[in-house]
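Exercise: predict the fold of this chain.
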Amino acid sequence: MAFINSLISLFTSKRLSQIDYFKANPTEVQRNVLKELLTTAAKTEYGQKYHFHSISTAEQYRERLPIVHYEEMREQISATMNGQPNLLWPEEIKWFAKSSGTTDAKSKFIPVSPSSLENCHFRGGKDIIAIFNRLYPDAQVFGGKTLALGGSSEISAANTNCQYGDLSAILISNTPFWANFMKTPDASIMLMSNWEEKIEKICEITIKEDVRCLAGVPSWFLTLINKILEKTGKNNLHEVWPNLELFIHGGISFMPYREQYQRLLPDPKMKYLETYNASEGFFGIQDDPDDPSMLLMLDYGIYYEFMPVSELGKAKPRTLLLEEVETDVNYALIISTNGGLWRYMIGDTIQFTSTSPYKFRITGRTKLYINAFGEELIIDNATQALYQTCKETGSQVYEFTVAPVFMDEGKKGAHEWLIEFETPPADPKQFADMLDCELQKLNSDYEAKRLLSLERLKLHVARPGLFNDWLKEKGKLGGQHKVPRLWNDRTHIEQLLEMNH
């Protein structure tokens, strides 16, 4: 095993030096990324429209190009899918990631160019190995198999020009043959579209394997873990896979699930690493086990800008360059990429925890928040309050969603929580009281509105399996689909409450 780790160290030493370089020279590296993007795309239709060839500074770029959402790019992306070349990016693009970040019925198709596939997504995967090996040179992970639980969508042909699917399915379909020897199960099972059938197959095959690493969304992995323990009759996952040592997680906050995983994976050798890999690009990797924030990866062909959330909705919103950001401020992420996205708002919000080097944590979505009464509750507040309340009550949460109860006939409003518990609280009323208090501690706007316009939150305990049943009914049961946890209207919660029988 020492030989394998030493070999990995040999092959990753140059890359680790490059990571250290961009940590020490972030502004220079990001300016070079922007210059390369503009030069490469100068003769595309988009590049000619905005005269990329004459942009020489980051400030000019920021002033000349508009900030766009998917809706503004839909027509050009559709044309690219239909085979029209050189619109947004000069390479031929045959792969499109079908976005599954929300349960919205309208799908987004994010272009995945050869450059973004190789220099962003796959480079991110290699960097996880490099960083982990540097952190833990004596780890035994690389001597066994990795079980990566991805999306449930198989690869589909939109037409003769392109194919689409979940990002995880695209990565599986393009993984070099040699890398498959380190993974389980094989691609034919991981690309199955029927989620429940896929879970059964994964259990059947992987129980017999030497699994040492898990990778996926924490909430969906719980489904697989519980199924495996049920089939094997074991008490925890180390009894099934004694060499299991690493869980690479992302997609949602790990905080509400941490204690469940410590119970299911009790071996002290167990390690956790958070990553941020979205359809639009690979953005961050945790590089310090004692710091849950992630290192912003600056040389993946992605150029970053940051919009203070106070600017959202303005006609001419202000954005900041990397060197202008501050810690502990919520920013909406604006990206320009080697996949042909230009000043694109992906919908995620982050906070920097450090600017030397640049490290951050995800705080939510620009649309996933509640501000029905001026309380500005973001997902970060909700997950932290939930984590603390669970810790104090010995409860464990599987899934949840929150929506406003609007004022009616002189009555105060409220927030309505629907929570599916893995371990329910002994006293749900006490749980709701404590959760409400925790939210007030974390969010001064919520605290102020509780005195004026909001009653204590309302709590419903969901029946087991409710959220999975709801996703299944919508055809979105799978590893990358997520329940909208905060929503400004009652559409989702009304549907869920109706099914909660």
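Check your answer against the key: Residues 101-105 have pLDDT under 50 and may be disordered.
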